[in-house]
Amino acid sequence: MTGDRVAAVFCNPLDLAYRFQDFAGGPLRAVFREAADPSVVRFRDRYYMFASMSGGYWHSTDLHTWHFQAAPDLPAGDYAPDVREVNGALIVTASRRKPGSPIFRSVDPLTNGFECVGESTFAWWDPNLYQDDDSRTYLYWGCSNTEPLRGLEVDPSSLQPVSDPVDILRGQPDAHGWERNGENNRMTPPRTLRERFSARVFGTHSSSPFLEGAWMTRRGDTYYLQYAGPGTEYNVYADGYYTAPSPLGPFTPSPHSPFSSKPGGFITGAGHGSTFQDAHGNWWHAATMRISVNNRFERRLGIFPAGFDDEGVLFCNQIFGDYPTRVPEGPIDPWTGTSTGWMLQSYRARTTATSSADGHGSEYLVDEDIRTCWVADDSAPGQQVTLDLGDPREVHAVQINVADHGLTRHKPKRPRRGPDEQPVAFRAVHPQDHPVRYLLESSLDGAEWTTLHDGRVDDSDRPHRLVTLTTPARLQYLRVTGVATPWDAPFALSGVRVFGLHDVAPPAAVIARAVRTSPLEATVSWATSAGADGYNVRYGLRKERLYHSWQVLGNDTVTISTLNAGHGYWVAVDSFGPGGVTAGDPVFVGER
Predict the structure, then answer these.
(1) Any idea where the domains of the chain sit in the sequence?
(2) pTM score, two decimals?
(3) 72: Cβ–Cβ under 8 A, 6 or more apart, which residues?
(4) Can you spell out the DSSP letters for 268-307?
(5) In the chain, which end has fewer C-beta atoms inside a 10 angstrom radius, N or C?
(6) pLDDT of res. 6
């Protein structure tokens, strides 16, 4: 999210130096980048973002440029670190399966770091602290497909319990379609060795969803307890919420759940996150986004505009949630105020490459799927891919997405530990020690080339670099040439995405047809529109408030599997292409 830009624009997944995780041997051994479970707060005019397995945290003054701060005084390998302000200081704690999770405090993290001020007296996973306006402080926690999410009151000074725990919510997959396990909320039996091992150790492939990632927000007199499900490795990983008149309930499920959900598009998933306000009072939601190719925990971070409507409904705007997003300079409408207006120009563009490994052709650069990738067939520097957009376009930005392909085979094996050394479950490798470097060039005619980014002189690690042009350029060709890769692995990219404007008309409107096939699902279909790259299916409980969206590419139907039983829905299908978006009219699909 830094450099190469004139306007404050970012693009999900956030372009951060995600740490490489080197898990130990066994069926799940893999080397991959990871960060997840983002906890974001604004403290003394600065945003602090903590994420799992990161060895530190990121901070920013503008929600655009993020700086990584190593934190050796914090546990590097604990999942779901929680950061909240309590009594004028930042409090950080994270997940442990046994009592004794350390609790850290700081009033000036960048200068003085964090001090351990205590530890938990009971086991918690996915903790979340919340201090109310009256200074009373509460802890929420839970990550299980068998146990409920719980909460209790703690002393704001010692952070030790002063009340008995309260069971707050359990999974209701029979009533909440979005809580059901599986890709598209459909579970399939484990097939591979990796899946069978994961099912046995982690409880995946169970019909019971994992509910986790509590986060409390108060607005007015209503308390919003947000939670994630059904599993981090699914495209339907999402956040829902319950509301209550007091911090410990009683809580009522919201029929508008999931409020954060991104099951389609280039990168999917939007669960286990945090909701916060910026300096202008605008609401945002940070969440976990899914890759899960090398390992189920291969994940990224995303930030989306959010808000509350006049009836107190919490929502996220995730339409084009992985397109460039403008950071506002004042209060904005979350549905319109962050849009750049730039459309994707590279979907299914013509591609060529100097070489391609079997099953990883250059066409995967432009298929709008971060889980597929082009891979060169050898490790020699200079491997190259070229995109031809077909005709000149007004280009504003290019996003280059790196793929961690085959790093397990290329990274040297760690030495065996000595008899006096403690065993470790993983070893994190700093990405700046092993950056992916490349040369990005553009051309109008395919003969004369202009450098947009030069990795020969820039050794920064930017796995999802967004290059924003100082002046929009009319061009037709993009070329990416590999310079260096981690451990000399073959050059691999999961997407070269070109954003801008095209002087063609938006595709024609489509008419949605929706049929409720079960209490938890509806099938939506439409006739394809000439010139459309894809369709955004928007849906919700009110005709004028279609808060949910599901992006569809290369198809004319989708099964919306995230519905709540007992509620009718309105559905609209918008067509979009390089020339713009055409909104569709809502149709009603009733209960069943």
Answers:
(1) 35-326, 343-501, 513-589
(2) 0.94
(3) none
(4) EEEEEEEEEE-TTS-EEEEEEEE--SSSTT-EEEEEEEEE
(5) C
(6) 46
